[in-house]
Specification:
Two copies of one chain form a homodimer. Chain A has helices at residues 11-23, 59-67, 81-86, 88-112, 147-164, 191-201, 221-233, 254-270, 279-286, 295-299, 308-324; strands at 2-6, 25-26, 29-30, 33-38, 49-53, 72-75, 118-124, 136-137, 169-175, 177-178, 206-208, 215-219, 244-246, 250-253, 273-275, 292-293. By secondary structure, the first copy, chain A, is of the alpha/beta class. The first copy, chain A, has one domain: 3-Layer(aba) Sandwich (Rossmann fold). In chain A, the strands form five sheets. A seven-stranded parallel β-sheet of chain A has the order 5-4-1-6-7-9-13, with helices on both faces. Chain A is globular. At the A-B interface, helix 5 of A face helix 5 of B. Bound molecules: nicotinamide-adenine-dinucleotide (2 copies). Chains A, B: One of its GO terms (molecular function) is oxidoreductase activity. Chains A, B: This is SDR family oxidoreductase.
Amino acid sequence: MHVMIIGAAGMLGRKLASRLVARGEVAGRPIDLLTLADVIEPSQCGPGIRTLTADVSSLGDAAELVAGRPDVIFHLAAIVSGEAEADFEKGYRINLDGTRHLLEAIRSAGAQGPYCPRLVFSSSLAVFGAPFPEEIPDEFFATPSTSYGTQKAIGELLLADYSRRGFIDGIAIRLPTICIRPGKPNKAASGFFSSILREPLVGEEAVLPVPESVRHWFASPRAAVGFLEHAAGIDLSGLGARRSLTMPGVSATVGEEIEALRRFGGERAVRLIRRQPDETIARIVLGWPQRFDPKAALALGFRAEPDFDAIVRVHIEDELAAATGPA
Amino acid sequence: MHVMIIGAAGMLGRKLASRLVARGEVAGRPIDLLTLADVIEPSQCGPGIRTLTADVSSLGDAAELVAGRPDVIFHLAAIVSGEAEADFEKGYRINLDGTRHLLEAIRSAGAQGPYCPRLVFSSSLAVFGAPFPEEIPDEFFATPSTSYGTQKAIGELLLADYSRRGFIDGIAIRLPTICIRPGKPNKAASGFFSSILREPLVGEEAVLPVPESVRHWFASPRAAVGFLEHAAGIDLSGLGARRSLTMPGVSATVGEEIEALRRFGGERAVRLIRRQPDETIARIVLGWPQRFDPKAALALGFRAEPDFDAIVRVHIEDELAAATGPA
Ligand SMILES: NC(=O)c1ccc[n+]([C@@H]2O[C@H](COP(=O)([O-])OP(=O)(O)OC[C@H]3O[C@@H](n4cnc5c(N)ncnc54)[C@H](O)[C@@H]3O)[C@@H](O)[C@H]2O)c1
Ligand SMILES: NC(=O)c1ccc[n+]([C@@H]2O[C@H](COP(=O)([O-])OP(=O)(O)OC[C@H]3O[C@@H](n4cnc5c(N)ncnc54)[C@H](O)[C@@H]3O)[C@@H](O)[C@H]2O)c1
């Protein structure tokens, strides 16, 4: 089977690629060819891996991506919320036109001969906008409060319609905020959710710009990769036109994050969190969802961590143990 | 004030134009110029009326539409459900790209000098897809089961984002199924809802393809024009990013329609309905919403008919009395 990851050089793309290489199969079938595509040259290589530098927002590149007729396509390419908000045109070009070009490329490949790949699209909680009920049901409407969220919501609608028409067999999975996001601190408004754990766990300071009462919905990078993998293999025929699923996650407050940090890093780690209230970040974050009741995803077998401790444990196992290497 | 109707040659566009001409004002301000635009040359004329033949799905035409910087734009141009389903590319070109081109044309006009028109977009119940709760709340999600519904739902999302960013001051109103639709019978799956009244009221036969128990959500053409007019004038600042409103309507079964017909046309009219079950139509219609709880629209002052009799009365007053002329 031919599997393609678009956005393969990104944080989740790289982890997904490693996972697929390690397992050698997905959706219960062996992977013969894994194409890693990104606008940045993907760095992973090995037998059965092909890399492709392509910009999904270019019509020609989108056609080239699909030319090899991959059986499963993970569409992870996107620019994130802050950038899509700062650069209106770029956000629409990459996050909306990119997705549409990809869908159109698949549709025209299908017009040349039977082709209906499984398409897994990484959507986001950003499709939702405040105010929210305490626990958000699957039937809650998408009223994004960012251009990024709008572009993801439109991608979901296109994916559902192209699926209904038989051009693709698509599923959009709305990923929780990934925590602990590995790597360097970034400027995303959500960055502190990860950095108040990631930095103190290695003895560095981190800034907390919001009160401890702030609650949000999380999953580890490992869980996110698990969602993507699971989404590639399940039977979607029962979903009808409802192809967008909110993924399960852990609802936790910043205070609960800090409690988990105390259990793993002790008081010394907790003391590395510097409280520095930021009105702007606090206001943005107040508009974010806090808790979901993701019945449909659970019924289809998607599983997140049971609690926040498990999320910290994943980080220690996958990032810190790996970094220091085997004893 | 300069007002523009795009899709002005259509059923609702013509009625809205007549209404605006008769009132001479909208949103509490006098209309100095009324531009009637359509891909088909609009037939209405008179002082202060300008007609424009333009295809909103062409980038150049969209810019031309906006060149006169109308203060209020009614965007009614669309191809309907059946056609968008039969011709996938045409549906996306007109119903999606057309709306996006219009929004982009407004955004670039705004880049040349302050411009933020009120944009009223005629959306549809087709943004919803079965299964439904018995009464659909405002917060219910949009999972369209047609390409037309998908295109309308995407238009709503774009309109909300362009409003949030300050490029337009937009509102999408989801019109109920218009009943009694004047004119000739057409091939729309929903056609019978109107024809089982319209034809018998003038002594002609009509075909009923579904059981009398079928329930749906209706408003008269006059109410629809009232929604559009009202949408042009109200303060939308309280809506935030939630710019799409399901309009109030009358929830009625086919049996209730027939009872209303009996009250206005007598037994003789009812006997002109020929029952001719059609599995395909019955299946399509079963997927349609039956009843809404349109709290947000009611709070903003949108009003539909109180019952189905009122819907029939509007037809008699606006179509039949008008056709025969004053006594
Ligand atoms: N990380 C999260 O918390 C989170 C949450 C919800 C959804 N998502 C979504 O998951 C996906 C992956 O997230 P991530 O955290 O790995 O992001 P990332 O920014 O690390 O990776 C995205 C990748 O897409 C690539 N890309 C951007 N534009 C492209 C284009 N035009 N053509 C081809 N490739 C392009 C980038 O080069 C990058 O490698 C994204 O779609 C993101 O929106 C992430
Ligand atoms: N009638 C209903 O029951 C109903 C219900 C819900 C929503 N709506 C929506 O209300 C609007 C008006 O409905 P209607 O019943 O008057 O439809 P209609 O078909 O009578 O009118 C639509 C008009 O749009 C014009 N048009 C089509 N493509 C165009 C283009 N590319 N550029 C410019 N003009 C174009 C057509 O020529 C036509 O005159 C539509 O957007 C429709 O989707 C109607």
